[in-house]
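Dear Dr. H.,

I hope your travels went smoothly. While you were away I took the liberty of generating a structure for the chain from your last submission, since the lab meeting agenda had it listed for discussion. I wanted you to have the full record in hand beforehand rather than looking at slides cold. The sequence, exactly as received, is reproduced here:
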Amino acid sequence: MANVRRMIGQVAGFTTNVLITGESGTGKEWAARYIHALSPRAEHPFVPVNCGAIPADLLESELFGHEKGAFTGAISARVGRFEAAEGGTLFLDEIGDMSLSMQVKLLRVLQERVYERVGSNRSRSCDVRIVAATHRNLEDAIVDGGFREDLYYRLNVFPIELPALRQRIEDLPDLLDKIRQRCIDSGLQIIDITPGAVRVLKHYQWPGNIRELSNLVERLCVLYPSGTVDIQNLPTRYTAGAPLRDSDREGVASTRASGPQPQDFDLPSESVPLKAYLENIEVALIRRALHECNGVIAHAARHLHIRRTTLAEKMKRYCINSSFNPELD
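The corresponding predicted structure, in token form, is as follows:
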């Protein structure tokens, strides 16, 4: 990562196109924002576009904008992302998912620095720095016919590869501290993670990389607000392949024997929306706290180690009534 930061520092001051590669969740957008922040364009917009999340037939309008009446539903003119990023940086995330027809149009913009809105014949010049990113191997995609070779060389002027978390596992303690601080900034209560838990987490392979680590810390902040997280508090998937000391095994066995714990919930075999999953856990904890405190919000907030106003806001967001409900017993 020191080498990555050095490369970012070298290229930031130029208008050179940058291609950031790496597995999903390694922080490619972070690197793009870092390049922008260190560049002379830092006072101008940074505009991200996820090329894989926008349907192919809408991507042209998203990037270049459109005129009123250009197509059904175009009831007014719309500014595209290139125009919105004028003078700044346009971040094209998941560029490997862009259709071949759209790749041709993007190549023209990179070569001539002009584009037209959909439904317009007037060319517009652009002063935009391009930073692209992908988790795909674009050289393999070129061989398979899924990516244009000329566009690849236009984008790959200055390549930066981000390592997977398992390749920089010594950074895990520092990353945990940064993520915990970000959770505090977003209103979650801080948790302490014991050295034993950190040691176990270092043996996990982290297929989701830093994004998975961030999701885990947020989940633990919800389950154990202002508490301490030890090995027995970690979900089983993170402890399964780790070498445990005798004292660790005793703690885990004791926790398992005491009955089902929130952290023992295994993820479904199919994909799961983490945000909704965490919200369901949070709602259940709030309802239980209100029940045990006979509906007194101040007492429930103290039980959850959060401010009364924070609990009131969460209750309003989740439409939770503070009335005592004996059916929860």
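Two observations you may find useful: The CA atoms of residues 45 and 88 lie 5 Å apart. The first helix runs from residue 2 to 11.

With kind regards,
E. W.
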